[in-house]
Amino acid sequence: MRMSLAQRVLLTWLFTLLFLIMLVLKLDEKAPWNWFLIFIPVWIFDTILLVMLIVKMAGRCKSGFDPRNGSQNMKKKVWYLTAMLLKLAFCLALCAKLQRFTTMKLAYVFIPLWALLIGGMVELGYNIFYVRRD
């Protein structure tokens, strides 16, 4: 099953809207829910993305696959997987901090997010300066 761009955009907006509604309810103290429950739309969306990414990565392992005719290189997919795991680590650490499960300093909670942002800037710089030289 292949999702069209419109379906992916609609799915992204839907999960973002659900997360924002739940976040506002929590911040307005109208919903006394656990922070991990507030992030359920994020967890579901990330799970969908991870499954899609792993299926695409596994497609390279099937017989008859010619790596010279591949659509994307494996390094980019590994970066996407790493980025998803960094985002997951940040969300889990943030929820644990907000729920007071840990006494970790807030600066340590943001380390996966900083690593993700730095990696994204490196990826952007690489795509601008090395890949698109004409």
TrEMBL record:
This is TMM60 protein. The chain crosses the membrane at residues 36-58, 78-100, 106-129. The keyword NAD does not apply. It comes from the Eukaryota. InterPro entries: TM_Fragile-X-F-assoc. Coiled coil: none annotated. Signal peptide: none annotated. It comes from Platysteira castanea. Keywords: Membrane, Transmembrane, Transmembrane helix.
